Automatic annotation (TrEMBL):
One of its GO terms (biological process) is regulation of DNA-templated transcription. It comes from Nonomuraea wenchangensis. Pfam families: GerE, Response_reg. Gene3D superfamilies: 3.40.50.2300. The lineage of its organism: Bacteria, Bacillati, Actinomycetota, Actinomycetes, Streptosporangiales. The keyword DNA-binding applies. One of its GO terms (molecular function) is DNA binding. This is DNA-binding response regulator, NarL/FixJ family, contains REC and HTH domains. SUPFAM superfamilies: C-terminal effector domain of the bipartite response regulators, CheY-like.
Length: 211
């Protein structure tokens, strides 16, 4: 796997590259601002970009905005966002297929971090639970989610974290069949019928995040 890192802190940038190398992942470019990220993605055509939210010149949301521009050019390009805080303004726009959003403290768990990198690169979605909580706070009452049962909400919350049916079953101490039944109920209540061009699991998560 080939990765581009966009992080303005030299120490963190080098640390991430070392973690990736130890996991057998090649860093083809490590840059410190949004424009450099866009240029590196065009030049190297990597499998994934790891992007810090706050980068020069204002250290506010340049990384997220650069990530959105990259996705505008390559809609399916995998991006893993790292942030000290949850940036609600753009997070909901970015979240979807082949996207991860982790708080930087999660990088301390190397195994979990490398698992997230591989999952996002493979087209999956990995969302930090705290990101889910904060985005949910924006939801208005009367939304379709109000029809979900408490257990269906638990299942959907774990789906939003990128958990598989097997992992959800283990977390809730139920059978995989029970999880599948809850997911079918979620799809029905959110009016997500089968469609070859849609990924219902991702659409359910987007609804849950209040997009």
């Amino acid at each position: 796997m080939r990765v581009v890192i966009a992080e303005d802190s030299v120490l963190l940038r080098e640390g991430l590259a070392r973690l990736l190398a130890d996991g057998g992942i090649d860093t083809v470019a490590a840059v410190g601002d949004g424009p450099a990220l866009e240029a590196a993605v065009r030049a190297h055509r990597p499998d994934l970009a790891i992007v810090d939210v706050r980068m020069p010149p204002t250290h506010t949301d340049e990384g997220l905005r650069a990530a959105l521009r990259v996705r505008a050019e390559r809609p399916d390009f995998p991006i893993l966002v790292l942030s000290q805080y949850v940036e609600e303004r753009y997070a909901g726009d970015l979240i979807g297929r082949a996207v991860g959003y982790l708080l930087k403290e999660r990088v301390a768990d190397v195994t979990e971090f490398l698992e997230a990198v591989r999952q996002v690169a493979a087209g999956g979605t990995v969302i930090d639970p705290e990101v889910v909580v904060q985005l949910l706070s924006r939801q208005r009452r009367g939304a379709p989610l109000d029809s979900l049962s408490p257990r269906e909400r638990e299942v959907l919350a774990l789906m939003a974290e990128g958990r598989s049916n097997t992992a959800i079953a283990a977390r809730l101490v139920v059978t995989e069949g029970a999880v599948e039944k809850h997911i079918s109920g979620i799809f029905a209540k959110l009016a997500l019928g089968p469609a070859p061009e849609d990924h219902r699991r991702v659409l359910a998560v987007l609804t849950y995040l209040g997009r």
